[in-house]
Amino acid sequence: MFAAIATSAVVCAEEADTLSLHEVVVTGTRAPVSERVLAATITQVGKEQLTQMQRISVLPTLTEAVPSLFVTQRGVMGYGVSGGAAGAISVRGLSGGTGQVMVLVDGHPQYQGIFGHPIADAYHTMLAERIEVVRGPASLLYGSNAMGGVVNIITKHGLADAFGGAEDAVNTSLNVGAGSYNSLQAEVANSVRQGRFFSDVALNYQRSDNHRPNMGFYQYGGVAKVGYDLSPHWRAWGALNLTHFAASNPGPVSAPLLDARQWINRGVAEVAVENRYGNTSGAVSVYHNFGRHKINDGHAATAAARDYLFRSKDALTGVSAHQGFGLWRGNWTTVGFDYQNIHGEAWNADIVTNERLNRKMEQNMHYPLDKDLTEVAGYVDMRQDILPWWTVEAGVRYDHHSEAGGEWVPQGGFVFRPCSNGELKLTAGKGFRVPNLKEMYLYGMANPELEPERMWNYEVAWKQRLAEGRFTYGVNLFYMKADNLIGTMMVEALGRNANYNTGATEHYGAELEAAFKVNSHWSVNTNHSYLHTQKPILAAPEYKGYLGVQYRVCGFALNAGLQHVSGLCTNIANDAKEHFTLLSIGASYSFLPQVKLWARGENLLAQKYEINEGFPMPKATVMSGVSVNF
Question: pTM of this prediction?
Answer without folding.
Answer: 0.92
